[in-house]
Amino acid sequence: MDFLGTWIDDWLKGLLVEGIMGNLSDLFGNVNTQVGDIAANVGMTPWAFNPGVFALIRTLSETVVLPIAGLLLTFVSTWELIQMIVEQNHMHHMDTWVLFKWVFKTAATVLILSNTFNIVMAVFDMSQHVVNNAAGIISGSTAITLDIMATLEADLMLMEVGSLIVLLLQSFLMRLTVIALDIIVFIIVYGRMIEIYILTSLAPLPMATLTSRHMGGMGGNYLRSLFAVGFQGLLIMVCLAIYAALVRGIAVGGDPIMAIWNAIGYTVLLCLTLFKTGSISKSIFHSH
């Protein structure tokens, strides 16, 4: 009877450990997949992410918004000329260079406005180049290998059946939190790209005020917003890299139960941090 009881106990242990290891193996594989997928999605330029949406946004920008920006440019240029005249004592003392300055600023604004889309895409090209370079480093340094789980499996075999049942439930909870993380990452990554499309569609309006002394803050803040959204991708990659590095230690911890709860805590913390990447990036570039 002792032999039978020992056999049943070992069989239950093996079954429970197999379930726990399966959950954790899926967890580690999911983390590797997440880092790779986010590196691919965040590293895409707006036209590569969805060519159809990009073509629509460009058409709207050039056919609907650009004419309005032309009217805004006319108003801004006229306002600038009036201010120059007033500042020169109502033309009682008017230098010729002031008119040349106004002509130069207006011509520069027209040139910027006619190349608005190229300027906006150049900003995203630069930011995506940085993100892609970072993705190669991060994906290579945070890959979680399954051979490190041998230590954890040996520790689990020494535990009691009751503790293993509790740990199996906790590992299942961890899988659910990772599924939730997938959804959150999807929302953030795709939401960022939609924000890029929205900013791009209205680009001619703020660019029409870029060289204005009185209204130039509108154009300057717009450019800062472009840089903030572009480099938000780098912050997302950094968050995933930190998360992957922390989760990697789950398989070598001395206490398996504590390791599982640490992983759950890391996942919740990552979700909160990902939601803050947008505001952090905007604060860095001082955009609002």
Key descriptive features of the protein:
10 helices, rod-shaped, 288 residues
Low-confidence stretches: none
Number of strands: 0
- What is the percent of helical residues? over 70%
The ordered string of helix (H) and strand (E) elements is HHHHHHHHHH
Residue-averaged pLDDT, rounded? 78
Please tally the helical runs, counting DSSP H or I stretches of 4 or more residues.
10
Q: Whole-number radius of gyration?
A: 28 Å
Separation, N- and C-terminal Cα atoms: 74 Å
Strand percentage: under 5%
Structural class: mainly alpha
The main sheet comes to: none
Number of domains: 1
From the spread of the alpha carbons, the general shape counts as rod-shaped
Could you walk me through the main structural features you see in this protein, from its secondary elements to its overall organization?
The protein has 288 residues and is mainly α. It has one domain. Helices cover 85% and strands 0% of the residues. It has helices at residues 2-42, 46-49, 51-87, 96-114, 116-141, 149-157, 161-201, 204-207, 216-248, 256-285. Helix 1 runs antiparallel to helix 6 (149-157), helix 1 packs parallel to helix 7 and helix 5 (116-141) packs parallel to helix 9 (216-248). The model has no long low-confidence stretch (mean pLDDT 78).
